[in-house]
Amino acid sequence: MKLKALNGFKDILPGEAELWRQVEDRARDIFARFNFAEIRLPILEKTELFARSIGETTDIVEKEMYTFVDKQITMRPEATASLLRAYIEHGLYVQKPVQRLFTIGPMFRHERPQQGRLRQFHQMDVEILGSANPRVDAELMAMGTMLLSELGLCVSLEVNSLGCPACRPAFRENLLSFLESRQDALCDDCKRRSITNPLRVLDCKKPNCRSIVEDAPSILEHLCPECAAHFSEVQDGLRQLGIDYSLNKFMVRGLDYYCRTTFEFTTTDLGSQSAVCAGGRYDGLVEQLGGPKIPGIGCAMGMERLVLLLLQKEQKIEGPAEMDLFIAGLGDAASRIAFSLMQSLRKEGVRVAMDLDNRGLKSQMKQADKAGARYVLMIGDDELAKNTGMLRNMATQEQQGIPLGDIRILIETTTTGRHV
RNA sequence: GUGGGCGUGGCCUAGUUGGUUAGGGCACCUGGUUGUGGCCCAGGAGGUCGUGGGUUCAAGUCCCAUCGCCCACCCCA
Asked: Which ipTM was obtained for this model?
């Protein structure tokens, strides 16, 4: 086997694609309930867009982007930057004070693949631009909760606030001096992190670092009055909407643009990739990208992680799409009639198939069965002589002759009682 | 980038201390029913044992190299 997909790039085969469609349909339904509009975005953008929004020194920008170096363009590693670019470029903020937008599609990061992590992966991305109101934060988390729950998934919601440019520097200093005092006890990774990204030390998974960090200064105790008020109203909103959540003062975001509210829906069933949906507020980002001073908040859901969870739940991948009718033509003459009858029925909206390779009846019945046909129309010499067909109900095994001259009865019988 | 694990027909896999034509299951095709699906039975097609080299009378099995995939670190949806 010479030609194969690239490492970290996956084909989604028909059976699984059906499950993907179910997830996406459910999401679109909920996005509509929450008054979101779809926006479709390009996959390639100028490299600069991601560097400026995600952060020059983040892992994503430093070493994970698929970039055409000579052209200075990059395959998007996430959707928020592209979405804000489009939002600013087309002046969407003048059409409505608050824009609620979603987009679904592939993202690309050159990481080492593992369970729940691919180089091309798919996200459903949701953004609310134009409101700094804490109720918006609560509403967004409520939507995430609703979607995951309607998908039948068991996840937990963790919430934190990262403060804002007014309060974070002071906290950062505080944390830095704390980490310096414990430097010797930290793992090697955390020693490095305390310099490159001190906040990251807070969510190190090593037990030893965890216990050290227990005593670390908490961002929640360093919030400025505005951020503290905002965060308390977010929680108030969550309570009003009946959303279960827990505070996680150690939760940190990987992208630089987040401020104030951040949240993560996590599961214990995905190996080490526990986040199925994560996001937060990014007031100031629109401005940073050259737009007006407009606040925003958003989150992204990882499609393959959702699908993995659904597969684990042994949710049956449904069989082939249901088919209304399979036409079994025996012999050349019958086959010719079947071929054009199939076209007429398809024009009328009937889901029809037939065997085009002149196989025996038994083989054709098998094909019909496998394809999920609810009816089979058999046309052989006997039927041909009378210009009729033998219509068999595959479930009840009843069959009756019906005239071929008038296809209305065929349409009606075979399309009533559809399940899909 | 760093660890660990695994590569046998399309898929899942058996293969004893190296020893005849590499075995089974799923799926596929044909027949049992010369015009009737699912279940059953019989038969059939399908394999450079990831690749290259080495040891040996003999390699799927042992050694070396290489490629690929998976899991974990890291990072993140």
From this structure: 0.89
